Backbone:
């Protein structure tokens, strides 16, 4: 069978609903040559074939995971799951924005019809039922190859009358079930800019974050990597307090989820009812690399047992190298893989400089 042309490779359709994209997951795995990435790579101590991963979001189910695992990605993150089913926000879910560099101080950013490398993401962390995701995780885990790991992203779903203890239990339940289903690692999502409740903001509250992380840790085996996904922090003292609170409980910090901002249409009218959304893609890379670098300096100076995973705006091999040089052990891509399924192959074809040789 001749190889499928690149333009025909399945990918996320931003104009279709989440459910349609879920169902459109490829059944077949592309027969594409995946160039190796020379060097020794690890993910929280687990050996992996490369530092290339996919962030929580683009991999809606096991079929999407299997597809991208054949396209040069070795650290596959299962989209954030909850303890109960949750629908996606209505369309539009992905609105391209005209901004070249997010700093976190933007009041609002303009929407655009032309792709400029970034978009506002409005999903609201949908989830399938636990019955579905547990079986799906079990199935896809058995389909991954050696040197590939399955990380499952989990989030608690706070109820109006809940205490933080109850929220922590909900996170812990999801983590335990994901592990029992075959997850190699658990990523707690402590940041969702599209969700206004506390489950979306835990990274800004170090003590609460510790309560939840400790409860989750208690449900895992000591060797299970536990990661925490955080949002953008521009204050050094916030970064310091968060790392010190979580050090010894989590194995790695994943930065950065996105940079939050309101979005306006061409007439200057607010989109998304005037609520902020997470801006993802090229425009957040500089801020996110900066955060990884600041985290890395604290970790080294204070000798904290923490790894870093870089995420935000990665499109090319030099982007990956920038994160690795900033102190990341591995990286995750989201926007770029949704636009171009071959981005992993292209990064591998360019080649990555081994970390120790970098000046
Ligand atoms: C369509 C989409 C859905 C996402 N869903 C989640 C999610 O469920 N959980 C999460 O932790 N992050 C989610 N994210 C954030 C990504 O994991 C990632 O942090 C962000 O997109 C920045 O990376 P990028 O610039 O490569 O897109 C989502 C991002 C996109 C684009």
Residues:
């Amino acid at each position: 069978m001749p190889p499928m042309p690149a333009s025909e490779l399945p990918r996320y359709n931003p104009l279709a609903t989440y459910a349609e994209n879920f169902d459109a997951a490829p059944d077949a795995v592309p027969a594409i040559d995946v160039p190796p990435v020379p060097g020794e790579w690890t993910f929280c101590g687990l050996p992996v074939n490369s530092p290339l991963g996919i962030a929580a979001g683009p991999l809606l189910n096991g079929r999407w995971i299997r597809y991208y695992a054949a396209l040069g990605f070795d650290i596959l993150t299962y989209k954030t799951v909850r303890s109960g089913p949750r629908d996606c926000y209505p369309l539009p879910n992905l609105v391209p924005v005209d901004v070249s560099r997010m700093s976190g101080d933007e009041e609002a950013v303009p929407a655009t019809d032309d792709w400029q490398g970034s978009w506002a993401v409005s999903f609201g962390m949908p989830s399938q039922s636990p019955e579905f995701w547990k079986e799906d995780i079990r199935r896809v885990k058995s389909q991954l190859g050696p040197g590939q790991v399955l990380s499952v992203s989990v989030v608690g779903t706070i109820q109006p009358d809940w205490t933080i203890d109850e929220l922590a239990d909900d996170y812990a339940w999801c983590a335990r079930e994901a592990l029992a289903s075959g997850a190699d690692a658990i990523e707690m999502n402590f940041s969702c800019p599209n969700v206004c409740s506390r489950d979306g903001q835990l990274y800004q509250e170090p003590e609460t974050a510790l309560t939840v992380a400790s409860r989750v840790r208690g449900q895992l085996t000591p060797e299970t990597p536990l990661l925490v996904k955080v949002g953008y922090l521009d204050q050094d003292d916030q970064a310091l307090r968060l790392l010190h609170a979580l050090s010894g409980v989590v194995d790695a910090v994943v930065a950065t989820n996105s940079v939050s901002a309101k979005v306006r249409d061409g007439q200057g009218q607010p989109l998304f009812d005037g609520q902020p959304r997470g801006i993802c893609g090229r425009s957040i890379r500089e801020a996110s690399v900066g955060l990884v670098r600041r985290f890395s300096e604290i970790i080294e100076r204070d000798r904290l047992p923490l790894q870093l995973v870089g995420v935000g705006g990665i499109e090319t091999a030099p982007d990956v190298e920038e994160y690795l040089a900033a102190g990341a052990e591995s990286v995750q891509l989201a926007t770029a893989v949704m636009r171009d399924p071959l981005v992993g192959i292209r990064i591998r074809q360019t080649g990555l400089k081994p970390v120790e040789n970098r000046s």
Summary: The chain is about 30% helix and 20% strand. The longest helix spans residues 164-180. The two ends are 45 Å apart (CA to CA).
